[in-house]
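Reopening this one. Same input as before:
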Amino acid sequence: MKIAGHKLVRRLSGGAVLMAMPLAGFAQDAVDSGDTAWVLTSTALVLFMTIPGLSLFYAGLVRSKNALSVLMQCFAITCMVSILWLVYGYSLAFSDGGGAQWAIGGLGNAFLSGVGRDSVFGTIPESVFVMFQLTFAIITPALVVGAFAERMRFSAMLCFSALWLTLVYLPICHWVWGGGWLGELGVLDFAGGTVVHITAGVGAIVAAMVLGNRRGFPTTAMPPHNLSLTVAGAGMLWVGWFGFNAGSAVTAGSDAGMAMLVTHISAAAGSLAWMFMEWWRYGKPSVLGIVTGMVAGLGTITPASGFVGPAGALAIGLSAGVICFLATGYIKRSLKIDDSLDVFPVHGVGGMLGTTLTGVFVASQLGGAGLSEGTSMGGQVFTQLIGVAATVAWTAIVTFVILKVVDAVVGLRVSEEEETDGLDISQHEEKAYNS
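Same output, byte for byte:
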């Protein structure tokens, strides 16, 4: 891709044009039916990632007495975030923030004011763009659920997720995709390495540390209760991720095609790298390992998916499988932090790794889209590291404050008796299995 084209793609990365012109300024005939059809399809695929993909993936990983609670949390987050996105979420992420544009959007599109049938975003209806971005806002706090699975009160989860979306996700989404300072700085994040994976991963490990370990961790074995559910959910995540990454091109052209190809390559490479690492370390490859490696490969390629070529994707996927595997063991065995479903080592570490490596493999000599004019590889990597550091710092600090506030108001953790009985019974008076 030529330099001028790369600059345009950077402004379009994550499906978020930096509002260079008013939405109303696009003529109705600017809508492209092919682009619209692809983004509509991608939107359905990304929602499919959360319900049922992530829901089943997580439900299979917990103990049977907590399976319904995870399903309930993912479902409730989907509903709640949808309403908050309507009320103020989309507006704060993507509208003009005036003098505060570098930090946050305004409320000009609150309750989707101004988003009508004739509103156009690039070459697609704005309503389609709104819905596509909503699916990203849904899955990000749902990912965090995996860190505090089996021990957070349902009421606390709702309060935490609403505040976290508002104070963590929306500002960082605006910084990177909505015209904020990281996007203007030149941070490359095609589909959510910073916005989704680093925020979810860092939020997850902070939540795990504030809540404390599950009773019995790490001495008591807590194996997944139904790996068949987990594999089914993992397969749905893999397919849905094509909408996540390729849909972020917001066109049905060559950028989407390459993003889909490199997404698949990285997922396969991550799976195999994790499997062989586990095989070498423990003597046998596991089903849990190969699907976790797939998720690591997918999360790590996400920020790079629109910028790198197949060779870069292979390197990123292999790196993800190895580094995220090592990070998982270190978090659990050395630090003894009970990030229940490994959200930080897979998504957080993967997001940081992928965001950083984007600055390397975007180079045209390595098969990427090419660096923008006047930018060196070292300069781009440095810019990527600024994006990583800013996202980590903001997410960690704000997440910690939110957790403390929620704990003071409603209490974060269930009682020991409720944890022993399981959250299905104690929080919802239901069971996943009645036999």
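So the earlier flakiness isn't reproducible anymore. For the record, The domain at 3-15+23-410 is CATH 1.10.3430.10 (Ammonium transporter fold).
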